[in-house]
Hints:
Helix content: 55-70%
Order of helices and strands: HHHHEHEEHHEHHHHHHEEE
Largest sheet: 5 strands, mixed
Number of strands: 7
CATH superfamily of the largest domain: Glutaredoxin
Shape: elongated
CATH architecture of the largest domain: 3-Layer(aba) Sandwich
Radius of gyration: 30 Å
Number of domains: 3
Strand order of the largest sheet: 2-4-3-6-7
CATH class of the largest domain: Alpha Beta
Structural class: alpha+beta
Mean pLDDT: 79
Strand content: 5-15%
Amino acid sequence: MVCIAAFIILAIIGVFVAIISIFKPKVGKAYWKMFKKAWGCVSKKVRLQKCETGFKDDVKNTLLSRVIVKHPNWVKPLSVIIEVLSVIIVVIVIWAVLTAIKSLLAIWALGSCNVTKPSACSMGAEVCSIDESEPSNALEATGRWFTEWGEIFEAIPDKFKTYNAEDYNFNYVTVPSTNAEASVAVDIFDPGCSVCMISYRNQKAAGFFDEYNVRLVPFAIQDADNNYKFKNSEIAVRYMLAAEQFKSGLAVELLDHIFTGKNSEGISYQNKFNEDYSHDEAVAKLEAWLAEAGLDKDGIKEVREIANYPEITDKMNENRDIIEDQLKVKGIPTMIFDGKRHTGLWENM
């Protein structure tokens, strides 16, 4: 292990030695000689051949040369420490390389280098992540590490899969369209998700809802303990599904207010729903918008009753099963159109 650890360290410091050798060629020659010995030892280890003990002894003698003279009794315990540190260095490097490979594969297959908490990956797509619970101990963390590999390999075939938006039996909100022959697109969103809001605005500005027959799927993100990620998303989703059941296209009125509207103080309604409104205040605002859309008191009462029906809860659970279990979505917004699946902020692609 000493020669492998030495090779790793020499490889890391090689960049700095290259710069120094421009001014001091002797340093570069000495380094290159040592590096070739280290590489020769590592190549033999890879081929399961016995490494030259001479190089290992050279490394140890170099490190212990001063100790031998002043404290000869320290040589044996320090030699053991060097062996242990060598093993630790090699293990850390192997772990780092495997983690880097896992992160790159996860970005390619899942859109995020962090499988458990996608939004924590700065290199991934901009999403509101559907996070898993954090491991409570080292054993769970180790198990999660291997489980993440399984999720990545399971997702790889999906990269080559053709998606048909009509294959998934979502409970959705209809966007009024003038193009009846347009192909179907699915757009999964959370009313409290800021990325979903920006994505929705981009789609409207680019004419996405005119180009496709879009099925908007309202989905309130929950964690492993069934807590909602955003404060009033659950009641907003209930009212959207209820409004859609009452009258097709009515739910889009509510979504437009949340994603594009602002109050008299210039604060977005999404922010008010997420940060300020209580449950009752959120309900009152949703029903006020229904009144603006033309519903009378009886109509609003009926939507309210539908929102509290067990059938709406069933619809929400059905959507969750499709999103998390069938599609294995890690973050939203997620869209399906033109045979492809796109996760993250939608831009005019």
